[in-house]
What does this fold into?
Amino acid sequence: MSKKLGILVIRGSGESGFKKQEKFLGKIYRKLDKEGFPADQIHHEMVDWYGPLQVQQESALERIYAANIKLRSRATRRLIVTNIGDLITYGGKPNTQSNGYEDTHKLVHQSMLALKSMLAENAPLVVLAASMGTEIISNYIWDRQHATSPDPLGGSPFERFETLTGLFTFGNNFPIFAAAHDIDAMEPITFPSPNLAPNLLAKAVWENYYDKNDSMGYPIKALNSKYAAANLTDIQINVGNLLTYWNLLSHFGYWRSKKLVRRIAGYIKNIMSDPA
It folds into this structure.
């Protein structure tokens, strides 16, 4: 049975696994069911983009350790290579040749195809992206929107994100990547797509959530005049617990935010209330 709404989830850096994201979605689904909205009409896919990058990172570490060089703090070194190293390994520039960039985007496309196969034609799409996932999905959508030749990753309106209705970004890393670009020339993705159905166009939102204590997550409208004019809203939110809400570790608290659960559940409810 074809589902009525799709959710694409793309998390940030680190090793594979989606426990936090599955719990987050579980809370959204339970809230919808409790309010009489059929969560069984929603299908979600998680983008496991980390695989290609992890292979390269582990290879580099293994070669160094195999040389029998004395190094302390192996756990810390691994944390740096497998998290901060993602920013370098990925590449992070649209339309730029990079093994990490291209391999990562192939995995995004696999998730898009899996999601598309479960949905009714032209079903609305909601994207939840956190941390480095915000950069990856932005680049991915940009490349689909600016393809100058037949695009193997953009074979349908859904694959080109023309049905993208809700974009929720958490702990956005765009400013960290900005130094690789001409900042004044940077442009946001086109959102919403001009091809989005009129009944959904009126409900389209891009909300960018950041915690003022999160030094790895940022508001993005201040980047340049193009972002300032974009159809997006920066929203300050407090996330984390007593040990993390006041420091850098708040960056890992977005997937546990009750406020975000309520907001996204309410947004999905609004879309699914549309009889069209």
